[in-house]
Amino acid sequence: MRQTALLAFALLPLAGCSRNWLQPDVVTGEEYQHTVLEAPRPVLVCFSANWCDSCPKAAAALERIRAEYAGRADVVLIDVDQSQPIADRYKLRGVPTILLMHQGELKARWLGVHPAEEFRDALNRILEKSSSP
User: Fold this and answer.
1) I need a labelling partner for 11 at 20 to 30 A (CA). Which of 31, 41, 59, 130 fits?
2) What Rg value do the Cα atoms of the chain yield, rounded?
3) What is the separation, in whole angstroms, between the first and last Cα of the chain?
4) Which H or E run includes 99?
5) Is 108 helix (H, G, I), strand (E, B) or coil?
């Protein structure tokens, strides 16, 4: 039951600054496997921390992406302090770090705050390749 509740919570929309940024999604290894690595569509994974001053800015860009790409791509927010094994897997050098994952593979990586347009461009490249015969 707990896994189901956490998985559903991980898929709730980010609300940028309107949601309490200090409480990002908690994702266990099993949930990460299902929600990110086995996802049928691209996933932007934002690694953050409650002590991160620039993370709310990253959330604002990701909220725009989540709304624009609903049904075509997902966004998952992971607290590095609460999901350390997942963060360690990617040898993060700081937060926010955003990974673009597709079909279990790392396709792009950003460290720090970036404009939403960079995420759009990367997502569009993947979505165009996925829809090509």
Assistant:
1) 130
2) 14
3) 40
4) strand 97-102
5) strand
Cα 34 to Cα 25, 38, 40, 50, 78: the distances in Å are 15, 5, 10, 25, 14
Looking only at the bridges linking them, the beta strands covering 43-48 and 97-102 are antiparallel
Question: Which residue ranges form the domains of the chain, and what is each CATH number?
Answer: 2-131 (3.40.30.10)
Q: Which helix (H) or strand (E) holds 64?
A: helix 55-68
Output the pTM of the full model.
Answer: 0.81
101 forms beta bridges with: 43, 106
Q: Output DSSP code: residue 128.
A: H
Query: At 85, which helix (H) or strand (E)?
Result: helix 84-89
Bridge partners, residue 99, by sequence: 45, 109
pLDDT in tens, 90-121: 999 999 999 999 999 999 999 999 999 999 99
CB 105 within 8 A of CB 51: no
Residues with Cβ within 8 Å of 55's Cβ and at least 6 positions away in sequence, in order, are 21, 46, 48, 49, 95, 96
